[in-house]
Amino acid sequence: MSSTCNQDCGSCLENCSERKQSFLADTNELSKVKKVIGIVSGKGGVGKSLVTSMLAVLARRKGLKTAILDADITGPSIPKAFNLHSKAEAISEKNLLPVTTKTGIEVMSVNLLIEDETQPVIWRGPILANTVKQFWSDVVWGDIDFMFIDMPPGTGDVPLTVFQSIPLDGIIIVTSPQELVSMIVAKAVAMAKMMNVPILGIVENMSYLECPKCKERVSVFGESHVEETAKKFDIPMLARIPIDPDLAKQSDRGLIELFEGDFLDKMSDYLEEAKL
Prior knowledge:
The chain has 8 helices and 12 strands. The chain has one domain (29-270): Rossmann fold (3-Layer(aba) Sandwich), CATH 3.40.50.300. Strand 3 (89-90) and strand 4 form a beta hairpin. By secondary structure, it is an alpha/beta fold. Helices cover 29% and strands 18% of the residues. It has helices spanning 48-61, 78-81, 125-138, 157-165, 181-194, 226-232, 245-252, 265-273; strands spanning 32-40, 66-70, 89-90, 96-97, 99-100, 106-108, 143-150, 170-175, 199-204, 209-210, 217-218, 237-240.
């Protein structure tokens, strides 16, 4: 135990021998989730929600029972990607049913609970964190092979709650090619290691732009440093996603389930085959 310990294990990242209890929360008796993958980023705007959506779509295309828990409470974008506007149904005072996409992906997001989805969620950290915990425990997910959790960026209250309360099988770090990526990734790696959560690998989004005529690849954001960063932290480089106007358009129109491209195929196979 640290000499500066305040006995508040719930807000502590230290993995010391004096931790008083496990903070892992159980799902309800009507839910069984086999594998849980967190999609994280050290900063916003790198395409974390896009990667979450695409991985869920690929898993569903394989016939797997798939779910998305949208833990980005103040910036929920998962419902828009799947064109979900109906509200989650309460089946008891405590339990909710997730909303199902056209292809059968189960989704829970704060935008499926509030009346006006354009209104900001102005809640303090503990309320945000407790909401995510309730999404895990109170939603009747049913029998799920893969759940993907779209995490908010950074290392604040909500990511800490997910790491402590939900039994993650691993996380995937989403980043972009800019040179400052090493510092941002380092923070996400450090948090995961403090919480003893496996890091499955890194995905680089907005990696390049391919000319539709000559097929030349242009590094819009400069030369990538992600492979160097992956080697530095001994993390697999799982995929590179190009800047694709069609992909962005499908996501904006709520048609992400129709996307085409093999950018994440190998990573999807890896997740299915890995003994997590």
